[in-house]
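Researcher: Go.
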Amino acid sequence: MLQFTEQQFKEVKEKGEELYKSLSEVYCPYFKEKVTFNAQGLEHLKFKQREKARYEQDQYMRFNLIHLAPEVLKISSSVQGIWETKRFEYIKTNKKWENILKNVIYYEFIAVIKRNRVKIVIKQIDSGKKIFWSIIPFWGMNKDTMTRILHEGNPEED
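Model: Structure:
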C-alpha cells in the first residue's frame, strides 16, 4: 500500500493545487476545442461528493499525477469512453445556488505516459464548456474479494 507522511501529503497537495491553478485551458484534438480547468475540477480532486472528502491516499495519488492531465488531453485524438446521463447539478442561478436536473456527458481518455496509466475524465453539462473533471490512476482488482488494488509501479511488490 502507498505510504507517505503528513508532510509529504501536504507538499504533494500544495504543489498539485498550484499546478492546477496555473492551468486555464488545454486544446484537445479529439474535441477540436479547449478543455477548461476550473474550480469544479479542483474541488472534485479533493472531494468525492459535496462535503465528503476523498481519503488522503486517493488525493495524494491524484495530485501527484495531475501534471499528466494536460499532456494526455493534448495528444488525445480518440476517446475511450462516453457516458451520458441526467443528474442534479448544483448551479448558481439568479444569485442563488440550486440543484437542477441537467444532461451530463462524461468523456474518458486513457493513456500511458511516463510509465503511468491514467484515465482523464472530462465533464460537459448540457451543451456547455467541457471541463476537466478527474484523473484516475490505474488500478487492478483482487479477483477473490473484488476490491480495488492501487499499484505503486513496482512489479516486484505489486
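Model: The mean pLDDT is 88.
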